[in-house]
Design a protein that fits this description.
The strands form 2 sheets. The chain has a 5-stranded mixed sheet with strand order 5-4-3-6-7. α3 (143-152) links the parallel β4 and β5. The protein starts with 31 loop residues before the first helix and ends in an 18-residue tail after the last helix. By secondary structure, it is α/β, with parallel strands linked by helices. The longest helix has 25 residues, at 32-56. It has a single domain (24-223), classed as Glutaredoxin, CATH 3.40.30.10. The protein has 6 helices and 7 strands.
């Protein structure tokens, strides 16, 4: 399933289609709080992208630099992921260096994602006390819609905005470097799971739904990875801490 655009999916449409492009894109139905959050995110993403671009060099974007690998292979260093959680808090993948990270790219519109949700939530509950960080990136929809779904079904891992969704909120003819920078991962399968060890190396890429046993196996592998030299034992931080 490949979404062609990034609508704001109404809650009553979640069970009607596995394709977010078929769902209504009615931004006008957003509450004032949601509109304020979106505006805050857009402003913050521009500022954050500028700071990263100044540090890393805009000339490297798409030229073998920070945005060269759109979907990493096993053995690659995971590209930077810059986005926000549903409270508007900045989240950067690099902030979790030294911790095992499970990236879950999913959508509440996606039947396979919904089917696996109880299993991966159960696995997260067992792996999180061991230091694993799980980041659920809501692809192809308003992240607050994904958070609503997660809350209804008992999800506890952090829900993040899709960087491509955020980039799509910017005018197409403005900020081309920033739009490119926040689109660090191109996802064409839903769900997609990427397991990253403590050194920032991709250990596994799973392009299908997982069972509890699958998730535990991949999660325990990155938990067992060595802490990079020079880094202290992490304090099991999460985006909300």
């Amino acid at each position: 399933m490949t979404p062609e655009r990034y609508p704001s999916v109404a809650n009553d449409a979640l069970d009607q289609s596995s394709d977010p492009a078929a769902a209504p894109a009615n931004f006008g139905n957003h509450t004032p709080i949601r509109i304020a959050l979106v505006l805050a995110i857009v402003g913050a993403i521009i500022g954050t992208a500028w700071l990263i671009g100044e540090r890393e060099g805009f000339g490297d974007i798409g030229q073998g630099g920070i945005n060269a690998e759109l979907l990493p292979n096993v053995g690659d260093q995971a590209p930077e992921l810059v986005t926000f959680d549903t409270n508007g808090q900045l989240v950067r993948l690099s902030d979790f260096r030294g911790q095992p990270v499970w990236l879950n790219f999913w959508g509440s519109w996606c039947p396979p994602c919904r089917a696996e949700f109880p299993d991966i939530e159960s696995a997260y509950q067992d792996l999180q006390p061991q230091g694993l960080v799980m980041l659920g990136v809501a692809v192809g929809e308003d992240p607050l819609v994904a958070q609503d779904y997660s809350d209804r079904v008992g999800g506890s891992f952090p829900i993040l905005a899709d960087p491509a969704y955020l980039a799509g909120l910017l005018p197409e003819d403005e900020y081309p470097e920033w739009r490119s920078m926040v689109s660090s991962y191109t996802i064409n399968n839903y769900p997609t799971h990427i397991f990253i060890d403590r050194d920032g190396t991709v250990r596994s890429v799973v392009l299908s739904p997982m069972t509890y046993e699958d998730a535990m196996t991949y999660g325990e592998e990155i938990i067992a990875s060595d802490i990079p030299g020079g880094l202290a034992v992490p304090s099991k931080a999460t985006p909300d801490s």
